[in-house]
Design goal:
The chain is mainly β. It contains three helices and eleven strands. Helix content is 12%, strand content 33%. The radius of gyration is 16 Å and the shape is globular.
Length: 192
């Protein structure tokens, strides 16, 4: 009987809040990746710049206005290596998602929620759903770090690695691994 060869993990880029900044370190971080997921506040120039190099699946952020942004959805669900990924700009909080996010969690049953807006990097798990905010790859805001990352998915697990875009070289910022579920996550419906 032939031995099944282990597959390489599927890797996609994760970014948010570029605010029209074409960050050169993203070229290094996303080198060789075909897909980038962007959680909004992208900006027209940054969207074109990223699309020249990668397939980009983006959502509209509160600062994405104008004719160029009209075709960006407010939310989207993408299948990534068997994971259902909900992409939304504004989450609220993991403990208290906005009413729109609560509806989408119940309706779409994602494994992972990718959001932005706060500019604060976040890796958290709650009730079987993994939450990722890759922070901001745009201009520095207050004392918040500038961060972006990637998602690796294989048969048994998913790992999110975030990297600092500050300093002369990319440097690890945070990392979390969770078991890749075989079926969509169940998320309890909230009432009231």
């Amino acid at each position: 009987m032939p031995v099944k060869k282990a597959q390489q993990p599927l890797r996609v880029g994760l970014v948010s809040d570029t605010h029209d900044r074409c960050e050169p370190k993203l070229l290094e971080l996303f080198d060789g990746l075909s897909l980038v997921l962007h959680a909004g506040d992208i900006g027209e120039t940054a969207l074109s710049w990223l699309r020249e190099r990668h397939e980009v699946r983006a959502v509209k952020g509160n600062n994405d206005v104008g004719a160029w942004a009209e075709n960006l959805p407010g939310a989207r669900v993408e299948e990534v290596g068997g994971l259902r990924v909900l992409i939304i700009h504004e989450l609220g909080t993991v403990e208290r998602p906005t009413s729109q996010v609560q509806f989408l969690l119940a309706a779409e049953r994602p494994h992972l929620v990718l959001s932005g807006h706060s500019h604060k990097p976040l890796l958290a798990e709650r009730e079987g759903v993994f939450y990722v905010n890759p922070g901001s790859a745009g201009p520095k805001r207050f004392s918040l770090p500038r961060v972006a990352g990637w998602l690796d998915v294989d048969d048994a697990r998913a790992t999110v690695k975030l990297f600092s875009l500050e300093g002369p070289k990319l440097s690890p910022f945070d990392e979390k691994t969770f078991r890749a579920p075989s079926a969509p996550a169940a998320y309890p419906r909230r009432h009231g």
